[in-house]
Design goal:
single chain; alpha+beta; rod-shaped
Length: 120
Amino acid sequence: MYPSKETEKWVPPPWNDKDPLAHKKVSSLTINFGPQHPAAHGVLRLVMELSGESVRRCDPHIGLLHRGTEKLIEYKTYLQALPYFDRLDYVSMMCNEQAYSLAVEKLLNIRPPLRAQWIR
């Protein structure tokens, strides 16, 4: 391609030339966080309204943990049902197990020994 009268006068833009920023007023941004996000671990979905980098509003959806555990433990004893709660959420298995144990103890009016309470 040979220079013509039009291309002879062409000067390349400076190397640090930046396009002007788009001027669009955005008051807030709504995003979904989870359940596929690695930090959500598949059991939580957050619908967040952001203003810049600040969270203005957050609606948690926590019903994603259901795996039919109630039906599975329907005909089990209290001790046989305990391992099912370890499989609900791989991140907080001890929390689920302790919540179940505390609920059973409260329903049966059982008070564990002081040593057992401290071990927990």
